[in-house]
Amino acid sequence: MIGGLPIRTPVGQLVPWVNLARASVQYQPASHTHQALMPTLDVIGYRRNVAVTHLQENVEAAPRGLELPRGHFVSQEGVEWAPRGPPCV
User: Fold this and answer.
1) Phi/psi of residue 56, each to 5°?
2) Are 23 and 3 in contact (CB under 8 A)?
3) pTM of the model
């Protein structure tokens, strides 16, 4: 555990880290993203063998009961992607 990590003081004495500080878990985003100057929380999903209608049902159900911070809202945006065939010659 990190609390037992020895830290050397300015006078050379080793003391356990827990005597000098207190640790706590903080859940925060790994990066801050924005769109149109509004903060965003990006959730990326991949569809492999799921029908789009079922995927949309899951997307709509996921935020139910989720309390968002003031100024935040849920929206769905994206680009439809379709694989292209070989180029025409």
Assistant:
1) -65, -40
2) yes
3) 0.34
- State the Cα–Cα distance between residues 28 and 22, nearest whole angstrom: 18
In one-letter notation, the amino acid at residue 10 is: P
Give the whole-angstrom CA distance, residue 18 versus residue 22: 6
Taking only the tens of pLDDT, the chain with its 89 residues reads 677 889 999 999 999 988 888 888 777 777 778 888 877 766 666 677 878 777 778 777 777 788 878 877 777 666 555 556 555 55
Residue type, 44: I
Other C-beta atoms closer than 10 Å to the C-beta of 17 total 15
